[in-house]
Amino acid sequence: MTDAATLAQNRASEPFSSTWLSANAGSGKTKVLTDRVARLLLQGVAPQHILCLTYTKAAASEMQNRLFKLLGKWAMLPDSDLRAELAQIGEEGGSEAQLSEARRLFARAIEAPGGLKIQTIHSFCAALLRRFPLEAHLSPAFTEMDARAARALQAEVLETLAERSDTVAQLAQAFTGQDVETLLAEICDHAALFKAPAPDHGTFGLPDGMDEARLLSEVFLGSEADMIAQILPFFDVGKPTDTKNAEKLRALQFDQPNLSFLPMLEGIFLTGSGAKEPFTAKIGAVPTKDVGLAMGALIEPFNQFMHRVEAARPLRLGLAALRRAQALYAFAQPFLAEYSAQKEARAWLDFDDLISRTGELLSESSVAQWVLFKLDGGVDHILVDEAQDTSPAQWRVIELLAQEFTAGVGARDVERTLFVVGDKKQSIYSFQGADLKVFDKMQADFAERLSNVGLHLNQAALEHSFRSSDAVLRAVDMTFQPEHAEGLGGAPTHIAFFGDRPGRVDLWAPILPEKVEDESAWFEPVDAVSEEHHNRKLAKLIAEELRRMIDARTLVPRKGAARVMNEGDVLILVRKRSPLFHEIIAECKSQLLAIAGADRLRLGGEMAVRDLTALLAFLATPEDDLSLAACLRSPLFGWSEDALYRLAQGRAKGEYLWARLRAQEGSATLAVLRDLRRQTDFLRPYDLVERMLTRHDGRRRLIARLGAEAEDGIDAFLAQALSYERADIPSLTGFLTWLERDEVELKRELDNASPMLRVMTVHGAKGLEAPI
């Protein structure tokens, strides 16, 4: 007997049926992908004719490992067990020939030309462009940029434009943000939008010819100064509201009006955003009733003035938006042109270029058919993973690759299939420009194209969850009932595969922010969090609860017998890496819980990296007393505060710390520093750091003091040194300058096998699981 979940998986993995699959989290999506590839291989499809596009390199590696493990297992099983294994994935009644073929699949997959094509779409596009560089109008020696190189080049282009034209100055007048790097990255991410002409008056609903002078002339007719002078005495003797408005009006010089007057007048004359009729003139309310009656004939021209301010508001906002958009376009278009020229001169491509250039290659009439003909001899079956996070540009590439699938007879008359798996509920914040509307549109388009050639696109769903219990799944489904399911593609339906597995959902009372008096001493850090802060309270509650559960030897359900929980069974999820994120890590450490630390680290903030950087700064400039002092106090040399004070105290004017240290002959610290100083002019930055870490025991010292998590920062620092040496002349001063130029963020892989507690964002934890 085969259960319903396995039947649904086997129907989805049917090798020669095109399928669009919706799969809940934990429903065995990776298993279906693996089974489908295995079944295609079992049916005689050559490994090089299968293309599987996954979401990340980690996902590609996971799927490849699972596939090789499955095929390797088949190669060693006796006939009866192998028949049972094949039947389990929907290949019942295996003949002797089929069993022999199944045992050969592992070797066939290993020996496939170019290996199995299980890769990210960016990796696939890079490989395709390397295969057809001339057809794509690229240098055959092009290289792929990393994020750091992209940011550095964007900053360089910004400086070039600032010297060459006034577009940067115009942008600065309209740009209100502090982080220009983010703006440059956003412009590059949306480069396609700036190919269109700049917006005009019609874009913002403005009449033709509307400008600042015309807007002012429509609001201020010239008589306002006299009118305001006449009504102010009435306002002065009115209610407190009238007197406050009188002060605001008196501050404006109506004989010389300008555009900045309008927001101030709107604040006086118009209702707020929360009013029943927002941003309308306060007729009858400004001035108050008694003052209005006392004004007599003056009230009518005043009301007309308020109406003119009301009518001008949408025009003012539209005009401001137009000017900002024009400034953005005036900057973005030459910036993108220069950025593209600089990349081309260096033969660099970023991730977006890989996608767009592949799309152009497959669309260009003169070479597209030749490329597709060559690919037609290479790809017969396309599998797309995490399709809900596929961007329109990426869909375009997949669409062009699949052209031959729906064009009748190709170069080889073989059956071709498309397999797409995704789940709109799992879309990650429009990641990489993904659009759920495009996801639905592509499903309809592929269904129509296949039907035009007599084929059918099966629409299937995997609703069983192998990951969670019925209690948890019902809590999720009840939360997202139809009235709350907008954007999820309808109310979710989850079925627990292990229906009798125990489960529990705890809802804690919210801890609301409270205003507390700042009683911290003058010498304490100004950013220290008080014990009464809501983040500290919540973090402490979480850590104490976990400590209690572990001490109570709480059992966690697993396949077979339950076992006692440990820290590795816990995954703490937060929305973003806010102060709460770091408070949780700190409180868990204070409860002596084994914790893996943050899933993202800023390289420059890592203590081990700062110690190594201080060492390099001293080696580059021995007169840098602060860097030398930081080195000596670090775990690299382990000096105490007292020892450092005795070395530094009593120096003559102009005497450097290094000169004082050199007088201490026989010191182990002096021997290490002299060795490194002798090598500074001859070794690359990487070799210098490695010499300190290995030859002089620095790595062991750092990890002993800072914990095992420091190793990730040390390794990333070495990787940055190698990256720098590949791009620049490897000088020590240049490397230190290069490090200061940009902040590097390190992503740590916290996998399911970790024996330590993990604290992650929901985004970062996608694909991971934990009992608690």
Describe this structure in words.
The chain is an alpha/beta fold. Helix content is 52%, strand content 8%. The strands form six sheets. Strands 3-2-6-7-1-8 form a six-stranded parallel sheet. Strands 13-17-14 form a three-stranded parallel sheet, with helices on one face. Strands 4-5 form a two-stranded parallel ribbon. Helix 18 (392-401) links the parallel strand 6 (381-384) and strand 7 (417-422). Helix 11 packs antiparallel against helix 12 (240-250). It is globular, with a radius of gyration of 34 Å.
Percent strand: 5-15%
- The helicity comes to 40-55%
What would you call the shape? globular
Low-pLDDT runs? none
What's a concise summary of this model?
The chain is an alpha/beta fold and 772 residues long. A 6-stranded parallel beta sheet has the order 3-2-6-7-1-8.
What layout of secondary structure does this protein have?
Elements: H1 4-12, E1 18-23, H2 29-42, E2 50-54, H3 57-76, H4 79-88, H5 96-111, E3 117-120, H6 121-131, E4 143-144, H7 147-164, H8 167-174, H9 180-189, H10 212-219, H11 224-236, H12 240-250, H13 261-269, H14 289-295, H15 299-346, E5 348-349, H16 351-363, H17 368-376, E6 381-384, H18 392-401, E7 417-422, H19 436-452, E8 457-462, E9 464-465, H20 470-479, E10 495-496, H21 534-551, E11 555-556, E12 563-564, E13 571-574, H22 579-590, E14 595-598, E15 600-602, H23 607-620, H24 625-633, H25 641-648, H26 657-662, H27 668-679, H28 685-695, H29 698-706, H30 710-727, H31 732-741, E16 745-747, E17 757-761
Parallel strand pairs: 1-7, 1-8, 2-3, 2-6, 4-5, 6-7, 9-10, 13-17, 14-17
Antiparallel strand pairs: 11-12, 15-16
Helix pairs in contact: 2-3, 3-5, 6-16, 7-15, 8-15, 10-15, 11-12, 13-15, 16-18, 21-22, 23-24, 28-30
